[in-house]
Amino acid sequence: MNVVDLITKKRDGGEHSRDELRFLMEGVVEGKIPDYQLAAWAMAVYFQGMTPAEATALTQAMAASGETLNLQGLAPAGQLIVDKHSSGGVGDKTTLAVGPIVAACGLPVGKMSGRGLSFSGGTIDKLEGIPGWSASLSMTQFRRQLQEVGLVVAAQTATLAPADQRLYALRDVTGTVPSLPLIAGSIMSKKLAAGADGIVLDVKCGRGAFMETLTQARELAQLMVSIGRGAGRGVTALITAMEQPLGRAVGNNLEVREAIDALHGRGPQDFQELTEAVAIEMLLLGDATLRGLQGASGKEAALAAAGDRVKGAIDSGAAFAKFVEFVVAQGGEEGSVVEPGRLATAPVALEMRAEREGVIRGLDARAVGMAVVGLGGGRRRKGDAIDHRVGVVVAAKVGEQVGDGDLLLTVHAADGESAKVAAAQLRQTYTIVEEVVDSADDEPGSFGVPVVLERITS
Ligand code: URA
User: Fold this and answer.
1) Residue 78 has what pLDDT?
2) Does ligand 1 have an atom closer than 6 angstroms to the CB of 201?
3) In the CATH scheme, what is the code of domain 82-338?
């Protein structure tokens, strides 16, 4: 087999065989394929796409390109291990709240998470704002904590789906990130390699996501569900709104505080709704009793029972207690989460106020995410240091009425100069109109509320 032939084949709209994709991914990991050939192939895939069978074979080849985790035997009898993954967004601290809720309901959650890149935040960055908390765990520590605490979150290791790590870095600089089969392969290869039996996918849709329209998000979700099914895993995908930031806080420590609010049942409405919806889906996939109930009494009964379990874990304080246990198990300072006011805060807070009366028609999540990167809360390049204290707290969200001079958002910055730069960038973020007019379903900007737009399951 020859790489040039494979690039040409894809360029001309041909379909790769399983063996060809395995050959390519092995070549990627072994460093036999230079960047220019890999980039040319990625661009050919970007333009020509892939059939579902090809995308599945690509994912499996990427998952098999490194270590795969064996989590067998770590769940209590009858329970399955369920993972979750978000396709990336702004203010998305869902894992921080969902993990403890699901673990408090008796379902073990073992997760490999990423760091933020560009406008999109990352779970590991958020947790690293808690003094002492560490994401570097050996496989033995990962397994032990999964068994003893029922919740573990670690940084993705270099040995998990290494073909994706190299390909993703190259896509990032060659304009080939927004390709459906490449995104699906990238996400699902890591999920398959991470070993969970069931996977809940949170496919974000809107200006603050890789998929800007509902049609694209639906296509990506269907593809990932079908890839998971092909690999023998249970998969549910929720398509969720990422037009405006999720919740009100964007920025690492600010988001940890908001996640703690949600664990007490006091999160902003959209974030609380999404947290509970994802937790319910994880329980439906993994919990033995709920799976049985679904078979015997149907989906509605199982949904209601899962919802009661989630509410019970929050209201009893069990979910928050699990969060504290998990933080401490990974070296984090207990006081900083029991009293989140102790987490480091930025020295400067600058308010931005409305200059006219009206209804918030749009709030550009991507612009808010980029402003937080500019404040030092995210990174432009892999490896950049980040400031956990900074960020933006949104006071007015889509659909809300504001008066002239009302608070729109607060910028939390390391100094007055960077606060002013962010405020200037954020001036165009809001669209305020006299009245809201319905727009076409698939138009970005038309799905700020509600947060869960569709559910697709295998
Ligand atoms: N997240 C990933 O892990 N990979 C992609 O390609 C896009 C989002």
Assistant:
1) 87
2) no
3) 3.40.1030.10
Residues 44, 47, 52, CA angle at the centre, nearest 5°?
90
Q: Which conformational region is residue 172 in: left (phi greater than 0), alpha (psi within -120 to 50 degrees), or beta?
A: alpha
Q: What is the pLDDT of residue 435?
A: 77
Ligand 1 center from residue 150 Cα (angstroms): 26
Catalytic residue positions? Answer: 85, 164, 171, 186, 190
Looking at the CA of residue 171, tell me the nearest atom of ligand 1: 6
Give residue limits of the domains in the chain.
Answer: 3-63, 82-338, 345-433
236 neighbors 455 (Cβ within 8 angstroms): yes
The residue ranges of the chain whose pLDDT is under 70 are 436-449
pLDDT at 164: 93
pLDDT score of 447: 46
Task: Please tell me the distance from the alpha carbon of residue 220 to that of residue 326, in angstroms, as a whole number.
Answer: 32
Give the closest residue to 97 by CA, choosing from 334, 271, 316, 303: 271
Q: 406 alpha carbon to ligand 1 midpoint, in Å? A: 38
The two beta strands, 407-413 and 249-250, are unpaired
pLDDT of residue 444: 42
Q: Relative to the CA of 168, which ligand 1 atom is closest? A: 6
pLDDT on residue 77: 87
CA 134, 137, 255 angle in degrees (round to 5)?
Answer: 35
Report the nearest-CA residue for atom 6 of ligand 1: 183
Handedness of CA 33, 37, 41, 42 (dihedral sign): positive
Overall CATH class of domain 345-433: alpha beta
**Centre of ligand 1 from the C-alpha of residue 195, in Å:** 18
- Ligand 1 closest atom vs CA 114: 3
Ligand 1 neighbourhood includes 181 CB (under 6 angstroms):
no
pLDDT per residue as tens digits for the range 247-279: 999 999 999 999 999 999 999 999 999 999 999
Ligand 1 within 6 A of 165 CB? no
- Phi and psi of 93, rounded to 5°? -110, 25
186 CA: nearest ligand 1 atom: 4
Res 439: pLDDT: 53
**CATH fold group of domain 3-63:** 1.20.970
Residue nearest to atom 7 of ligand 1 (CA): 183
Sheet with 249-250, side-by-side order of all strands? 249-250, 391-394, 407-413, 348-353
